[in-house]
Amino acid sequence: MKRFLRILHDYWFRPASLRDLAIARMVLVGSQLFLFMATMDIGYQVWLAKSDSLAFRALPTLKVLMAPFGWGVRPEPMFLQVVWYAGLITGVTALIGLYARPSLLLFAAINTLIIAHVYSYGEGHHREAVMIIALWAIALAPSARALSVDAVRERIRFTRQGLTFAPHTPADDLSPYARWPLLLVQWMFVLIYLSAATSKLRFGGLDWLNGYTLAYYAGHDGITRDAPLGVWVAGHLTIARLLSVGALLFELTFVLALIPRLAWIYVAAGFAVHLGIWFTQKAPFFQYLFVYVVFIESLRRWGPLRSRGPAPVWTVVYDGLCPLCLRTMALLDELDGRRCLRYLDLEHQWDAVHAAAPMLTPEQARAAMHVIGPDGRVYRGFFAFRVLARALPILWTCLPFLYLPLATQAGPWIYRHVAESRTRHLCRAETCAV
What we know:
single chain; four-stranded mixed sheet; two-stranded antiparallel sheet; 6 strands
């Protein structure tokens, strides 16, 4: 029994990448925030709240969320408007990781409340469920320990207090609590697809594979929802049969997606299935496409996202006695997802600096930050920041501004002004004790 529990514990809580979890947070929150604005119209919410109260039958979920105001109480229009705008604000803060834990919890709760309110009037779908559960899972996980404003602020605070900079180690990027939310949603996908497959076989048996059922629904939805491809599929029984067999096999065997080497195949097949459903039946299962991000670890290691080789290393030479420089290094280290930056403190690692850039003098290194490229070329000041923006994908959005026509003239002037205004804590130098 102990061995089984150990295996179970290792499966769910084996150390995993915090950056994978952070990327999942940004994809899930960002996509749901877009869908929140695009599909959860506040006008429709208010219209429902003002409609005939006899049509209102509060779902258990809505009763729980509205419990502080009374069990089973119907949300007021003004309350729904406040909640909707709060959803926009918490969605943005959760996306960037600012006050991440309360933001994520509130964003998950607001989305749950809004959807439960709509479905309390007799309408009901299941496509939102997997996204909502995924939002709650990442809200309870350390999903903002990387790639977040909170992580940057904490790192800068630590650097400022200790007046020292220590780059991340591989162990810092891992957590035993980073895997379980992704695995939980992966198993949800398995159960969802298995449920769909067993439902087909239970009510239709093997006759479901004859193509007539799929042709009927494709034709019906194609006509009522203006989907010409659905009408075309309904007129080609052989195509309908092949799609029926393919859909059933996909759903029955999706459990194989839990095998890391096979995950990318099923994710690609899932994209094809749900996009095909949209084009033939206009059934919007777009949430599923975004929630597939929970397979990010498998896709990164075995799928099309896997690295083709180690990233080129850029060496950053900084002034270890400059608080501004230390904070800058802490920020760069947080943004360096590929771990392609190497840091050298000119005051304590000058031998390594001289070996990497023999022509660089201590006076030049103290006057401005220098970056040594993989080819040995040395960049100084503003131009060093510009090559770092090229090296770090998260900063690529800044590149157009760094290459504006006047940037080459204005950038060095701004950098020089900031560099000349910075302070240095000379008391940390080795000669202070003397």
